[in-house]
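PROTEIN DESIGN WORKSHEET
SECTION A - STRUCTURE
LENGTH: 355
TOKENS:
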């Protein structure tokens, strides 16, 4: 391996730059209402199709209202596709959403929401409370997690078409579904060589003490997609995530990060971040690597080089120093989807390479 590691330097703010690229890629290079032959279709409220609910609900009772179980008879849906853009919006009967078990939102929390208020006045008319601001904020939320862009004015028109106030509360779920699926995975026998990591900037932190970096919850992944996409846009394979001003190393993408180096005293070590702060995931592959290294590379088996196994915090400065002094042996990541040697990132605009 000839690892290379790239750090911030002129790479700049990954998140903000990534959002700009998302906007550019999702924007249609055409006038509004143009068809797909000219570019990606935009969200267009004028094409709304109304499908009447022929089985309207009875008026909700006090308990239903108090439990926020009362919804309107209709809802608005509009799908988006990466090849064609926004499809025709529908005002249709309220009901379940159809999602594939592999849908990104179920695993990586690629979702956002807004809540706005609607009042009925003494004159019987309905009035929305500054919904234009909610629509603008919704656009910002969508861009932040690499969801498609839209014209906030068109979203406002759709909200006005619904007319009534949908009720949803922020509470613990009262229903849940457990499901198990099997997925065919690509062959990973041929590992890509000379992969590159782009060190994160301080405009985003993937996980933090007291957070949920240790858990496989969707919100632990979706927010990082913008920076990941921007890194790939710049020619890198993933992001090496840092924490705090000391550039403390945490994870690479969503995988556990390891280094193999020699100490200044010449001791061979395998080093990875500890689990103590709840910042990183207790990966099964990570644990397996550590267990194997401790039992097989302890010097008791002839022909295998002995090394020390360290679970401790370390920062980018240590990585850079080890490379410059020729003490770095290799870096790699391990996870459910990957476990291959990984090259180093770059630091302070300088490409770090193995000697």
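SECTION B - SEQUENCE
RESIDUE ASSIGNMENT:
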């Amino acid at each position: 391996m000839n690892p290379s590691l790239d750090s911030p330097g002129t790479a700049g703010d990954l998140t903000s730059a990534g959002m700009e690229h998302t906007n550019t890629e999702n924007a249609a290079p055409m006038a509004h209402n143009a068809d797909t032959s000219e570019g990606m279709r935009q969200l267009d409220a004028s094409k709304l199709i109304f499908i009447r609910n022929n089985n309207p609900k009875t008026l909700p009772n006090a308990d239903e209202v108090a439990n926020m179980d009362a919804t309107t008879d209709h809802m608005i849906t509009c799908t988006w596709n990466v090849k064609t853009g926004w499809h025709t919006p529908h005002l249709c009967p309220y009901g379940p959403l159809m999602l594939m078990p592999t849908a990104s939102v179920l695993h990586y929390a690629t979702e956002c929401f807004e809540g706005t208020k609607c009042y009925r006045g003494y004159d019987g008319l309905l009035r929305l409370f500054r919904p234009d601001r909610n629509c603008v904020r919704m656009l910002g939320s969508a861009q932040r997690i690499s969801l498609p862009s839209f014209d906030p004015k068109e979203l406002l028109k759709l909200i006005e078409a619904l007319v009534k106030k949908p009720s949803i509360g922020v509470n613990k779920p009262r229903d849940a579904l457990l499901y198990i699926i099997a997925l065919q995975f690509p062959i990973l026998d041929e590992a890509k060589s000379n992969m590159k990591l782009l060190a994160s900037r301080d405009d985003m932190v993937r996980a933090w003490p007291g957070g949920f970096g240790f858990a496989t919850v969707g919100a632990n992944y979706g927010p990082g997609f913008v920076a990941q996409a921007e890194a790939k846009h710049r020619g890198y394979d993933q992001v090496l995530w840092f924490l705090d001003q000391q550039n403390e190393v945490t994870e690479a993408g969503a995988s556990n990060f390891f280094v193999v180096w020699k100490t200044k005293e010449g001791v061979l070590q395998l080093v990875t971040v500890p689990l103590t702060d709840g910042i990183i995931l207790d990966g099964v592959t990570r644990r397996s690597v550590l267990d194997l290294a401790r039992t097989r590379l302890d010097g008791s088996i002839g022909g295998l080089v002995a090394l020390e196994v360290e679970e401790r915090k370390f920062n980018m400065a240590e990585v850079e120093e080890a490379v410059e002094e020729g003490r770095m042996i290799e870096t790699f990541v391990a996870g459910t989807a990957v476990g291959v040697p990984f090259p180093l990132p770059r630091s302070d605009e300088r490409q770090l390479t193995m000697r």
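SECTION C - NOTES
Residues 131-144 form the longest helix (14 residues).
The chain has a mean pLDDT of 78.
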